[in-house]
Design goal:
The structure is a single chain. The protein is globular, with a radius of gyration of 15 Å. The longest helix is centred in the middle third of the chain and has 17 residues. It is 26% helix and 20% strand. It is built from 5 helices and 7 strands; from the N terminus they run βββαβαβααββα. The relative contact order is 0.15. It is an alpha/beta fold. Helix 2 packs parallel to helix 4. Strands 3-1-2-4-5-6-7 form a 7-stranded mixed sheet.
């Protein structure tokens, strides 16, 4: 997995102050994407043990509410293998930190058994995160007044409740606008 960028003081991609990881590689290629450079799986630098240690050291600082993973596309199968390892470590070492993930895929179509991006670690990832912002960016549905997403088709999903109830549970954050 390659990393395009790490933002050390992000408040646009989740609640509170977040440490944000932009992974590289995306096959969605949404028209109007704000981060086209990260479509290339080789963009940026490799995710190394040293970079992971740097990331974990930063995330342990008390002012971070949590981390956000986006891209590129975290749910590309080749990215899921490394992302699940990072999430396992965060849950073990920093269990009070929240985890948000963004995907251009649709939860109930692409990330469930039989879905086109489902792998043997997808369920573990989804069971471990707090919020999933799903859906492709649709330029014709762009709305700059939305919190934490770029187009009106995207949803902010509370993953713990969704997984427990077996149906999509939207976060109250969906209703908020800037």
């Amino acid at each position: 997995m390659n990393v395009g960028e790490i933002l050390e003081a992000d408040s646009a991609n989740g609640t509170g102050i977040r440490l944000t990881l932009f992974v590289s590689g995306c096959t969605n290629h949404c028209k109007g994407c704000f981060n086209e450079d990260t479509w290339d799986f080789n963009y940026g630098r490799p995710w190394t043990k040293e970079l992971e240690e740097f990331f974990m050291g930063k995330l342990s600082l008390p002012f971070y509410e949590g981390m956000t993973i986006l891209g590129g596309e975290p749910f590309e199968p080749s990215n899921q293998e490394e992302i699940v390892k990072l999430i396992r470590r965060v849950k073990k070492e920093l269990p009070d930190k929240t985890i948000w993930m963004y995907t251009g895929f649709v939860y109930e179509a692409d990330l469930v058994p039989g879905g086109r991006k489902y792998t043997d670690v997808t369920d573990e990832i989804l069971d471990s995160i707090d919020i999933l912002v799903d859906g492709p960016y649709v330029e014709e549905k762009k709305n700059v007044a939305l919190n934490f997403r770029g187009s009106e088709n995207q949803r902010i999903i509370e993953m713990k409740k969704t997984r427990e109830e077996g149906e999509i549970v939207l976060s109250p954050l969906n209703a908020l606008v800037r």
